[in-house]
Amino acid sequence: MLPEEVKDNNLTGALDTPSSSVPGQGRVRIAGLSVVFGKGDAQTVALAPTDLNLEPGTFTALIGPSGCGKSTLLNAVAGFTPPTEGSVQVDGRLVSVPHPSVGVIFQNFALFPWFTARGNVEFALKRFRLSKQERRDRAMAALAEVGLSDHAMKYPGQLSGGMKQRVAIARTLSADPDVLLMDEPFGALDAQTRLRMHELLTGIWMKRRKTVLFVTHDVDEALRLADVIYVMSPGPGRIIEKVPVSLERPRPVDRMGDAFLTLRSQLLGLLRHED
Prior knowledge:
Layout: H1 4-7, E1 28-37, E2 44-54, E3 59-63, H2 70-78, E4 85-90, E5 93-94, E6 102-106, H3 117-124, H4 132-145, H5 161-173, E7 179-183, H6 191-208, E8 211-215, H7 219-225, E9 228-232, E10 239-244, H8 258-273
Parallel strand pairs: 3-8, 3-9, 6-7, 7-8
Antiparallel strand pairs: 1-2, 1-4, 4-5, 9-10
């Protein structure tokens, strides 16, 4: 369990101004990365040595059984979990601590209940040397991008689960990171809301072209969103297969063609084989 102050990646680190996206930024290089928790007889290998490269602007999904190390890998890229061996680099920078160029969105929203939607986004921008008006303008622009302009002054307790996750996405986007890490962000939402969030996220990604690493248990979700899917084995996790997804976008749920179903069958077969 991550501490509350670490769960919100937007509260860690310091920069004069938010990251400004530059074409070609957002390259992630993972080399020989392994993570071991505990010592001696109490050691647990959470992630076996893993290599993974994410090219700028790509959308990558990571799937595998519970406990296979998906979240551990993501937390290492975020700078939350130090590698036991190997390394993580983002645009040539060795990752050792959280950095504003990498944004993280979790399943549990991690919103402050005493702040409004706008206040939650503004608070995430306080680490930057921005005026109060600049923070407000950025917050409102990000909320507009996720369709929440009319709900900016509502508190989290007044928002649905889907709206809360939209606020979390807006909060991360307001800092304009180059890499976006998403750890089962829609896992707590109902099926209909998840489909709407898939459409929203796809639209944002196609507009902004951030490098996305998306952790999910849901094969269909991975196929609707990603350019490439990596399948992990049970813990200690390792990547066992890379599956490119060349399906035309958008990928609505009511248009699952033969290519979609073939990829779905392939992925389910890989997961079954590793149970």
